[in-house]
Design brief:
Shape: globular
Number of domains: 1
Oligomer: single chain
Radius of gyration: 19 Å
Number of helices: 12
CATH class: Alpha Beta
Largest sheet: 8 strands, antiparallel
CATH topology: Beta-lactamase
Number of strands: 11
Strand content: 15-25%
Order of helices and strands: EEEEHHHHHHEEHHHHEEEHHEE
Structural class: alpha+beta
Helix content: 25-40%
């Protein structure tokens, strides 16, 4: 039986609740069982870029061997800053390729400062600046390692994508019977919210030499490469020791603490602001040791502006809401 969504975030203006964002969220214990749910933990969703740690894990298992910073970039949705673009070029150069091999759509950097500098420098939208170019560069490099064709690396039937599908099934525990096309052109898989969270529980509790552990350890060591200088996913990892986290399009997010507890969120209307405050509220509820609570509190509230000054805020009730059925 389907479980109704819950309010993940609300926003007020001068004391009046102007609207709400609905969705689903789940917290798993270190054993991968549901510890708390808001809405439906079995909700099916397209994980979008939140699946990138799993995709990078498959590539490492296939023999891709990158230094930690570039391994983190392989699992990123980067902001298009110089450090990200340079890293993508390093991945490609290591495989004897150039940016011309990328099949990401042409785009401008996500980061507003980097985007302004890029345009002022006379640059146009390019595949290199697109936020998924780190993943695509790693996919191309993996094909070179395995001796596979590179021109069709995004094809769902390509051996690379079939290996990624097998890894996603293994880490989520879901059957994964539906595959679509992500915004970057690579395959995107339909999984459960619980399965998405479970993938990171498996990763952080794996042996130190396991491919999935290698990926999440690289992400934790280089959070600025996973997102960027002005991104909430990076700020969150910097605020919580041992946390690995990955954001995705359309209001998806997944994270796991070093002790194996994990969580996943899906905002039904795709709101990024609702996703941010809901995730921050969940992390506050988890109360991880050593967390910077000042930074978490800053992420848990986004000002509603009127006349250029704060007149309300976007906040989440999750930390205080009663748990739904598991």
């Amino acid at each position: 039986m389907a479980i109704d969504p819950v309010v993940l975030a609300s926003y007020d203006r001068t004391g009046f609740v102007e609207g709400v964002h609905l969705g689903h969220a789940v917290v798993l214990d270190p054993g991968g069982e549901v510890a708390r749910a808001w809405g439906d933990p079995g909700l099916e969703l397209m994980a979008r870029s939140s699946a990138k740690p799993m995709q990078a894990t498959a590539m490492v298992r296939l023999g891709l061997d990158l230094p930690d910073d570039l391994c983190a970039l392989a699992a990123s949705s980067h902001s298009g800053e110089a450090m990200h673009r340079d890293g993508v070029l390093r991945i490609l150069a290591g495989a004897g390729l150039t940016a011309g091999a990328l099949q990401t759509p042409a785009d401008l950097p996500l980061d507003p400062v980097a985007r302004d500098a890029w345009v002022q420098g006379g640059h146009r939208a390019t595949p290199l600046a697109m936020n998924c170019s780190g993943k695509h560069a790693a996919m191309l490099a993996t094909c070179v390692v395995r001796g596979w064709s590179v021109g069709d690396y995004r094809d769902p039937e390509h051996p690379l994508q079939q290996a990624i599908l097998a890894e996603v099934r293994r880490l989520t525990g879901d059957p994964i019977t539906r595959v679509g096309v992500d915004g970057c052109g690579a395959p995107v898989h339909v999984m459960t919210l619980r399965g998405l969270a479970r993938s990171l529980t498996h990763a952080v509790t794996a042996p130190a030499d396991a491919p999935e552990r290698r990926v999440v350890d690289a992400m934790r060591a280089h959070p600025q490469l996973v997102g960027g200088s002005r991104r909430d996913v990076t700020e969150l990892m910097q605020a919580v020791p041992g946390l690995v986290a990955k954001d995705g399009a359309e209001g998806v997010f997944v994270g796991a603490l070093a002790d194996g507890r994990s969580f996943a969120v899906k905002v039904l209307d795709g709101s990024g602001r609702a996703r941010q405050v809901a995730v921050a509220a969940i992390v506050q509820w988890l109360d991880p040791p050593g967390a910077d609570h000042r930074r978490l509190s800053a992420l848990a509230s986004i000002a509603t502006l009127g006349g250029g000054r704060p007149v309300g805020a976007v906040r989440s009730p999750l930390a205080s809401a009663p748990a739904g059925p598991a």
